[in-house]
Amino acid sequence: YYSIMFIRTTIFILLTSLTVFSQTAKNLTKHNSENRYPSFSPDGKTILFESSRNGNWDIFLINEDGSNLRQITKETSNERFPAWHPKGTEIVFQSDKSGSAELFTMKINGSD
Fold first, then answer.
1. What are the distances in angstroms from CA 92 to CA 39, 60, 68, 102?
2. What secondary structure does DSSP assign to 14-25, as a single string?
3. Which of 17, 25, 71, 105 sits between 20 and 30 A of 6, alpha carbons compared?
4. Nearest CA among 76, 55, 77, 67 for reference residue 28
5. Whole-model pTM?
6. Is the dihedral of CA 4, 9, 10, 16 positive or negative?
């Protein structure tokens, strides 16, 4: 009896959690391209991600509410797998602009 009650309670909690999630999910990118590998900035205010919206993979930033979308890489090569530096001032990513996949860093404003 206790096992059944525990299972029923667990299922109820899971279903309730899924219902809350489905009601609060919001599409931030609103584009027909593939958008991958989202990563929140250390302060939680900005999301870094890769997108194929321009015909190759580039890295973009967007505010956590979906506003202020900006492209930070603009190469004809593929820039992929972005990740935040712990301080939130730089990112690291993979690019094939030198002919093979290598790691690069840059400031979040697209410089250096």
1. 12, 13, 21, 10
2. HHHHHHHHHHH-
3. 25
4. 67
5. 0.74
6. positive
